[in-house]
Amino acid sequence: MRAEQGSIRAGGEPILEVIDLVKHYPLTQGILFKKQVGAVKAVDGVSFELAAGETLGIVGESGCGKSTVAKMLVHLEQPTSGAIKYKGEDITKLSGRGLKAVRRNIQMVFQDPYTSLNPRMTVGDIIGEPYEIHPEVAPKGERRRKVQDLLDVVGLNPEYINRYPHQFSGGQRQRIGIARGLALNPEIIVADEPVSALDVSVQAQVINLLDRLQAEFNLSYVFIAHDLSIVRHISDRVGVMYLGRLAEIGTDEQIYDHPTHPYTQALLSAVPVPDPMAREYRERIILRGDVPSPANPPSGCRFRTRCWKAQERCELEVPLLVVPAVFRLTDTAAAHDSACHFAEEKQVVPSEGLLEAPETEPVEPGAPEEPGGPGEPAAPDDAAGKGDGPAPPSGGAHAD
Ligand SMILES: Nc1ncnc2c1ncn2[C@@H]1O[C@H](COP(=O)(O)OP(=O)(O)OP(=O)(O)O)[C@@H](O)[C@H]1O
Ligand code: SF4
Ligand SMILES: [Mg+2]
After folding, report:
1. What mean pLDDT do residues 25-43 have?
2. I want to staple 355 with a disulfide (CB 3.0 to 4.6 A). Which of 61, 102, 175, 229 is the partner?
3. What is the pTM of this model?
4. pLDDT tens across 132-146, in order?
């Protein structure tokens, strides 16, 4: 039921509407005759909306179901139940041509730029691969130019079109992954931990690139990460997941400065704070115990086995993801969806700005992002083959 799982009242018509999404993976026993003995409840009733041009951040500990949500959004996994509406149409029910058309508009950027790019394919083939399935976007004769434009857009030298992934640094590989995500001119990008595998300084560069591309192409992002500071930097709204469900969701100000769910407060209390004064002021909340198994989640509130505020009601009654009654008639930032029977506002991190990801200068042409990049002397000399293609477009700052 949608009202139970926190629909989001974003301004205007949502481009994407996720309604009570569930993914259970069957647990089976037996070799010859497999018998289902249970299920891993990876995602167990998640609802949210995404407005055009907006970024929704999704955070939560490992195993809480973030990637499973992402995979269902891009149709890499079929939901057990629930709906994913793209511009009002439930895409979980689509097949054939209808599905193909929608898939074009929702693309994914993966976590690990080291394993998500085929090492035997050139960068040009990797970025241009989606055109094999969607030739209508770029007929054969135009593909090379299109791919070079995309390389330029993500800040890479278009002359590197014939190079292989191993000739690029991690940040540059992630730029290649982003270029591939953009190839079909999508409206929505689902980015699953797109910077987690990168060095901190390179993370900020890739985040800045995503910011710029969003403004340039009016993209909507679902941005998944562990790191709450990175999520704040890029998100308009943030959803906090715990054990297959959303615990709290709201604008970045509501979640970071006025969290009301104990789990969000605990996560925030662990965020590194650079200012020593602010660090002293902040209260650390140490969570006891481990995350329970998603095959056997606790009754009532899933967070109750680790929550310092848990009472009998928490065991008996599932808390709904709604604006808690105590804040319902108030006009404060605490009045946002939170799945807690005893929601209370608690500012964990002292003031705005402390959690911002470091800003970086744009990458200058010729300056490698990190050692080992193609700009380094060790890299093969111009594997793209000089004079092999049209002159690179000028004006872009290339991470080469
Ligand atoms: N194909 C599968 N079969 C069975 N269980 C699965 C499968 N894929 C994921 N799971 C389980 O579902 C749960 C959620 O996994 P998921 O990968 O979505 O978590 P996550 O939040 O992305 O974690 P991380 O932060 O580590 O990437 C985990 O318990 C995981 O073991
Ligand atoms: S419902 Fe109870 S157990 Fe769950 S977060 Fe709130 S106080 Fe804690
Ligand atoms: Mg994941």
Report:
1. 90
2. 229
3. 0.87
4. 999 999 998 999 999
Which band of pLDDT confidence, cut at 50, 70 and 90, is reported for residue 32?
Answer: confident
Closest CA relative to residue 128, chosen from 119, 120, 112, 140? 140
Distance between CA atoms of 144 and 158, rounded to whole angstroms? Answer: 10
> Would you give the distance in Å from CA 353 to the centre of its chain?
21
Atom 10 of ligand 1: nearest residue by CA position: 42
- Report residues whose beta carbon is within 6 angstroms of any ligand 1 atom: 25, 40, 42, 60, 62-68, 294
What's the CA-to-centroid distance between 66 and ligand 3, angstroms?
A: 5
Report residue 29 as tokens.
């026993």
Q: What angle do CA 192, 19, 262 make, to 5 degrees?
A: 65
Residues flanking ion ligand 3, Cβ below 5 Å: 67
- Which of 242, 287, 314, 317 for mutating ligand 2's site (highest number of atoms within 8 Å of CB)? 314
Structure confidence at residue 352 as a pLDDT band (50, 70, 90): low
Q: Is the pLDDT of residue 383 over 50?
A: no
Q: DSSP character for 221? A: E
Asked whether residue 104 carries a pLDDT value surpassing 60, the answer given is yes
Atom of ligand 2 nearest to the CA of 343: 6
Which of these, 256, 245, 344, lies nearest to 294 by C-alpha position?
245
Residue 259, token pair as written in the block: 């969290």
Locate the domains of the chain by residue range. Answer: 2-338
Q: How confident is the model at residue 394 (pLDDT cuts 50, 70, 90)?
A: very low
Q: Does residue 173 or residue 392 have the better pLDDT?
A: 173
Helices 200-217 & 170-182 angle (0-180, nearest 10): 20
Q: Is 105 exposed, middle or buried (0-12, 13-18, 19+ CB in 10 A)?
A: middle
CA distances from 123 to 111, 167, 290 (A): 18, 10, 42
Architecture category of domain 2-338 in CATH: 3-Layer(aba) Sandwich (3.40)
Say if strands 81-86 and 14-29 run parallel, antiparallel, or are unpaired.
Answer: antiparallel
Q: Is residue 303 in contact with ligand 2, taking CB distance under 6 Å?
A: yes
Task: Please work out whether the CB of residue 217 comes within 6 Å of at least one atom of ligand 2.
Answer: no
